[in-house]
Amino acid sequence: MTGLSLARILAVLTKEFIQLTRDRLTYAMILVMPIVQLMLFGYAINNDPRNLPTAVLAQDHGPMARSALSALVNSGYFRITLQAASPEELDRAVETGRAQFAITIPADFTRRVIRQDHPRILVEADASDPSATGGALAALAGLPDNALARDLTGAAARAGGPAFEVIVHRRYNPENITAYNIVPGLLGVILSMTLVMMTALGVTREYERGTMESLLATPARPLEVMIGKLAPYVVVGLIQTVVILTLARVLFQVPMTGGWGALSLGVVLFIVGSLSLGFLISTLARSQLQAMQMS
After folding, report:
1. Of all helices (H) and strands (E), which one includes residue 122?
2. Does residue 164 sit in the same domain as residue 193?
3. What is the pTM of this model?
């Protein structure tokens, strides 16, 4: 045989399309996956979030303080959701997640602005998610130059330098060390990737080899078979967690203080959820290749 035959190529091409349409799961993945990724990256992932919840402790209600707060809101990054009555209430709002920013305006703010004494506004940020707070913190740089432009007239307007200062304090990772943000997040990424895939492949392998029917034919009930299949991966997940946390502490000096009970419970629930997702995938996939693609 010499040369290429267009007829033979078309025959093989037609066969592949027919085979693809028969494999409905793979066909659905080809169509659904681009739509899911488009929706995810287009809507769910936002590197410049706006209208972030903000708690304010305004100890000065003068015109300059009101103008500074209005400039914060008009920037589009801050949405005042709480007017705190005390520093303790302000701290609780950030610690409980009700507010992502805590702003404190001192009692003598207006008087010191008029006296050109350069007062300070304290902005505390829950910086546990740097991508969410980065844009808002960057917007604070131009606030002192523009917030009081209409309020200051005469000699006060001619004074050099900004009318006030903005002091930013990051409540999490104040030194902005990258490892402190990246390494803890890898715990969830690694567990979800490995456990979902290992469970999906492990159960699907039993179906492919025909050994699942043998297991179900034993006196063991289906629930007992499922628990027996998933239990080893729980141990694997716990071992991975210990290894990751140990290396995070030894190699990257990631601080870990308190909350070990809550962390352990959260890790166990996350592992169980990942294994459940992998088991769900195994019930849909017909082969290990499909299980790997779906996971």
Report:
1. strand 120-125
2. no
3. 0.67
